[in-house]
Design goal:
The protein is mainly α and 251 residues long. The chain has one domain: MetI-like (MetI-like fold, Orthogonal Bundle). 79% of the residues lie in helices and 0% in strands. It has twelve helices and no strands. α8 (174-183) runs antiparallel to α9. It is elongated, with a radius of gyration of 23 Å.
């Protein structure tokens, strides 16, 4: 318990010696995370939406995602540095984090569409909506909560993995752990681990709020009514051809 007290005291003191300040290290950590997640989102979300909308390529996506998850991040980082050269360490790190983030984003994108009741989509088609309208007015709004959940999972995995970037001198909160190991200062190692955990919890809490906010109002309203309190007329209205697309457009 004294070690944890020493770690907290070290954090509060702000005396990081020759290492970057906690504010700078946190900014570096978040920068690598944001870059990797944004690039992964630009790649994975359109592919996931295509898979979810058309139903094509799901098996390939699952296989690729499984293979990407099986790759050891540290080993991939070192391999990329050897291939690209030491002058491209930041690029090697971003590619490593990118590979880690894509599976969660891809899964969140296509499972969000797959979770939608097909009767809602069929109702939209019966009303004459084009495939583009179905995508943006029905599937994207209704699939957004699971997509945000995928982004949330990807961000947390990348935050945890960015710690290893300190091993190749790229900074971040992991530098306290690496330096603590080299100097045998246990309180610094614990402080670095605590800072990474705190950052992950904060980011997780923010994404949890966003995930709740992006749930369409119609879905929240239906969820707020208990099944026993609904009348038969209300239950019929939830799946009627007229009300389903209208609710999707309103959301």
């Amino acid at each position: 318990m004294n070690l944890f007290g020493d770690a907290i005291a070290w954090i509060l003191s702000g005396d990081t010696g020759r290492m970057d300040s906690i504010a700078v290290a946190t900014a570096q950590h978040l920068a690598y995370t944001a870059v990797a997640v944004v690039i992964a989102a630009l790649v994975a979300i359109p592919v996931g939406w295509f898979i979810g909308h058309t139903g094509k390529g799901r098996e390939v996506a699952v296989a690729v995602s499984g293979a990407a998850r099986a790759i050891p991040s540290f080993g991939l980082l070192i391999l990329l540095i050897l291939l690209l050269g030491v002058l491209y360490k930041p690029e090697a790190a971003v590619i490593t984090f990118l590979v880690l983030a894509i599976p969660s984003l891809l899964a969140g994108a296509y499972t969000g569409f797959e979770a939608i009741d097909r009767r809602v989509i069929d109702a939209g088609r019966s009303m004459g909506m084009t495939e583009w309208q179905i995508l943006w007015r029905i599937e994207v709004p209704l699939g957004l909560p699971l997509l945000v959940g995928g982004i949330r999972s990807a961000a947390l995995q990348v935050i945890a993995t960015v710690t290893i970037s300190a091993y190749i001198g790229l900074g971040g909160l992991g530098q306290y752990i690496i330096t603590g190991l080299q100097t045998r200062r246990v309180e610094v190692i614990i402080a670095g681990a605590l800072l990474v955990a705190i950052l992950a919890l904060i980011v997780d809490g923010l994404f949890s709020i966003v995930q709740h906010l992006v749930v369409p109002r119609g879905i929240r309203a239906v969820g707020a009514v208990s099944p026993t309190a609904r009348t038969a007329r209300q239950r019929r209205a939830e799946v009627s051809p007229v009300s389903a697309p209208a609710s999707a457009e309103a959301s």
